[in-house]
Write a structure and sequence with these properties.
Number of helices: 5
Structural class: alpha+beta
Number of domains: 1
Largest sheet: 3 strands, antiparallel
CATH superfamily: Winged helix-like DNA-binding domain superfamily/Winged helix DNA-binding domain
Number of strands: 3
Oligomer: single chain
CATH topology: Arc Repressor Mutant, subunit A
CATH class: Mainly Alpha
Order of helices and strands: HHEHHEEH
Radius of gyration: 16 Å
């Protein structure tokens, strides 16, 4: 995976509303959610939601499919896996991760 794609995805998630939308999509899973249900769940105006969904799609984090009159959005799980793999590649050089106390 190219570094620029990872940067784009992380930048998209570095905004509160987009992170909320993405987390909702992840909970919905591959079946996704219609845009109207996302707007209801997060109490967002449709124009605001459309903007954030477009940003998530452009960053490769969300997929969109038409279902009749509805647009159904879902997370791009394969892209998320690629990003996580990129971020954790060579993590801790094979050492066990030490848990820290909070």
């Amino acid at each position: 995976m190219e570094k620029q794609l990872v940067i784009s995805a992380l930048a998209a998630l570095a905004q509160e509303t987009r992170l909320d939308v993405f987390r909702l999509l992840v909970r919905a899973g591959p079946e996704g959610l219609p845009a109207g249900r996302i707007a209801e769940a997060l109490d967002l105006p449709s124009a605001t939601l459309s903007f954030h969904l477009k940003e998530l799609k452009n960053a490769g984090l969300a997929l969109c499919e038409r279902d009749g009159r509805s647009m159904v959005y879902s997370p791009d799980c394969s892209r998320v896996e690629e990003i996580l793999r990129y971020l954790t590649e060579n993590c801790c050089e094979g050492l066990a991760i030490k848990k820290t106390r909070r």
